[in-house]
Amino acid sequence: MIDKSDVETNVVVITGAAGLIGKAFVRAVAQTGAIVIAADIDLSAAEVVANDLQDLGKVETAYLDITCPKSVDILIADLMDKHGRIDAVVNNAYPRNANYGRKLEEVTYADFSENMNLHLGGCFLIAQKFCAAFKAQGFGNVVNMSSIYGVIAPRFEVYDGTAMTMPVEYAAIKSAVLHLTKYFAQYFKGTGIRVNAISPGGIFADQPKSFLDAYGSRCAGKGMLDPQDIANTLVFLLSDQSRYITGQNLIVDDGYAL
């Protein structure tokens, strides 16, 4: 059980806050009493999330383009001016271009490069900029979002009979996120900054039944997860109960990667 006092005075930035997992993250962190900054490139969508949760906690919204250095700088400066501190950033945004998700043979070099730049480059930029601010204040916490497919090779057979696939860009990005996590954790060791990752399994989003059955057959019982299943792990990594954990990757997947 996480003591709310471990998190409740914190200022926590969640990128991609209007997305499926982002919404659950905002809700879970707001319920701890922390000040949550729901940051998203779609500010109106972030405001909807904040309005839905206004009775649960302190949720503020902010525009953020994780691929734009100026946008990141402005957010950090605004938060420091308003709150005087930032305790944590959750690197959760998932930018991709219109051609993302094609099968390997159909992926162009330009699309592969653009998606790597958007997603992995954005993850790097957030970690770099926030860690600079964290070092100046003497403390901070970064949680990067990776995936089971950053840990294991794709299991293409679970997609048989569907139009789905496991995009090659995703595998490259999420495995790189894990090494960035270790790199940043090592680079900032001893500065009061912690950097960790969460690797979730699949999240239920009305996928085809054949996929759900094939995926679930490799799990311990539940199969596809709900966003809240990941949010509980995030709250742990934001809390003092994980104060001595850095450079690590927590896999939450109901055993799928075994």
Automatic annotation (TrEMBL):
Give UniProt keywords alphabetically.
Oxidoreductase
On the tree of life, the source organism's domain of life is: Bacteria
Show the Pfam families listed in the entry: adh_short_C2
User: Which terms does the record give in the GO molecular function aspect?
Assistant: oxidoreductase activity
InterPro entries for this protein: NAD(P)-bd_dom_sf (IPR036291), SDR_fam (IPR002347)
Q: Which family does it belong to?
A: Belongs to the short-chain dehydrogenases/reductases (SDR) family.
Q: What is this protein called?
A: NAD(P)-dependent dehydrogenase, short-chain alcohol dehydrogenase family
**Species for this entry:** Cohaesibacter gelatinilyticus
